[in-house]
Structure formats: C-alpha cells, structure tokens
C-alpha cells in the first residue's frame, strides 16, 4: 500500500511557543475557517503547500531529536485535523520514536473525524475563538459547537488541554466576555493552562499579497496593560 501523504505549509525546528519545552512544529496546509485576524491566511488553501510522506516528515523531525528531547512535536496549521488520516499516521510514528506530541487546533472539525487523532495525541492546544456563537461566526465563518464539543470530549477522556484565545480590540478584547470564558473553563479539569494571545499586525502583508480584504486594517493591537490585567483572570491555570 502506498505511504500516506499530506500537504505541509512549513516547518519550525526550534519552537518554544506551541506546547511544553522546545518543539518541532509541523504546520499543515488547509483551513476551513476564515478568521478575520488570521496571521497566516496563506495556510487556508487546501491545495497549497507541498506534499510530503510520513517518512519524509519524520526524517526532518528525527534530525532535530537532540533539540526537542525535553519537548516534543506539535502539529499545527492551518487546521491539522482536516488531514486527520495523515496526522494520525504521524502521531503513531512519533510515538514509536518516544516523542511527546501535541495537536494545535481550533476544534472546528467534527468529532466523527477528529476523535481518534485527539485520543492518540499526548495533549491538545485548543483555540476557542469565542463563547458567543454569533460572534464566532462573524469572526471565522463558523460557529463554536464543534470546538466546545471537542473540549467536552477531552474532559471525558482525560486529555490534557491548553486553551488559547486571541484578544482582538473591538471583538474579544472585552473584560466581561473574558470573565465569562474564565468561569466557563473552571468546570473543566482537563484544562491545564489558558494563554491569551494578543492580536498583532505581523501578517497583514500576507492579506495584501493574496488580495484578501482585511477588515481589521485599522484595528490596533491590544495594550500591554489590558493584556496583563486580562491574563490575571486565568492565573489559576499554570500546570502542565
């Protein structure tokens, strides 16, 4: 049988922001969401990127084993769960090499597709766009039901989760909605950490290059003081 292949956007050999320790990051190509604040819209096209086999990806990962021995491998995107079969094979290969794994996802893919991948990973980095379904649809083009079902699945299965939430002025940079998020997450023992990520302008040039309409062109980045105050709402989650 032919080896499983998938489409990759890029690789990062020394990542420190996508899971515990130093990690090898595999950014998979393709995403069904259209987040208005996305800093990598070049990952959206499912036909973009470059095709790799599982073996080819693993060769790259193993070549950096000495750097990631205290961390592991993170499969990010785009949305890695859109390529569930490919990621599942990569997780099996990483496990055979004794490597810790994490999947960085928005949880937008139904559990009927994603559950086996989530179960095979050592942990999940779950991006909750908004608890407000209407706002979530306005920002991403899709509601939040799959994401919240993913979180509940992790709770039921005991899967460790780091929550990520992007703070965007005029959309999610609201202290009351952040308090509601903190209260919502309190009932989930699977949540080990909550990271608030401030909206930034680094990817704006990509929107221009791709000819996409950027509705946040005039939106400022959130202030450092606001971000510090907001993060205190989630200081109870500091464990790996």
- Major sheet summary line: 8 strands, mixed
User: Span from first to last CA?
Assistant: 39 Å
Rg over CA atoms, rounded to whole Å, is 17 Å
Poorly predicted parts = none
Counting DSSP E segments of at least 2 residues, the number of strands comes to 8
Shape: globular
Q: What structural class should be given to the helix and strand makeup?
A: alpha/beta
Short description:
This protein is of the alpha/beta class and 240 residues long.
List the helices and strands and how they pair.
Blueprint: E1 5-15, E2 23-28, E3 50-53, H1 54-62, H2 65-68, E4 72-76, H3 84-96, E5 101-105, H4 111-120, E6 123-127, H5 133-140, H6 145-157, E7 160-167, H7 175-185, E8 191-198, H8 204-210, H9 224-231
Helix pairs in contact: 3-4, 4-6
Protein described:
The termini are far apart. The longest helix has 13 residues, at about 85-95. The chain has nine helices and eight strands. It has an eight-stranded mixed sheet. It is globular. The mean pLDDT is about 95. With about 240 residues, the chain is of the alpha/beta class. Helix content is about 35%, strand content about 20%.
Keywords:
9 helices; 240 residues; alpha/beta
């Amino acid at each position: 049988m032919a080896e499983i292949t998938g489409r990759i956007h890029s690789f990062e050999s020394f990542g420190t922001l996508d899971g515990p320790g130093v990690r090898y990051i595999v950014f998979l190509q393709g995403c069904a969401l259209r987040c208005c604040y996305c800093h990598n819209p070049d990952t959206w096209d499912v036909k973009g990127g470059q095709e790799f086999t599982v073996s080819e990806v693993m060769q790259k990962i193993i070549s950096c084993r000495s750097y990631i021995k205290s961390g592991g491998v993170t499969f990010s995107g785009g949305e890695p769960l859109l390529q569930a079969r490919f990621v599942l094979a990569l997780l099996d290969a990483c496990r055979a090499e004794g490597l810790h794994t994490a999947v960085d996802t928005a949880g937008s893919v139904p559990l009927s597709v994603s559950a086996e991948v989530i179960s095979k990973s050592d942990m999940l980095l779950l991006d909750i766009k908004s608890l407000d379904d209407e706002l979530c649809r306005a920002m991403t083009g899709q509601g939040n039901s799959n994401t919240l079902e993913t979180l509940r699945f992790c709770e039921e299965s005991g899967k460790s989760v780091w929550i990520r939430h992007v703070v965007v002025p005029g959309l999610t940079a609201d202290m009351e909605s952040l308090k509601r998020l903190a209260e919502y997450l309190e009932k989930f023992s699977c949540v080990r950490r909550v990271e608030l990520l401030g909206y930034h302008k680094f990817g704006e040039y990509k929107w221009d290059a791709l000819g996409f309409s950027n509705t946040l062109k005039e939106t400022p980045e959130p202030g450092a003081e606001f971000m510090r105050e907001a993060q205190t709402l989630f200081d109870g989650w500091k464990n790996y």
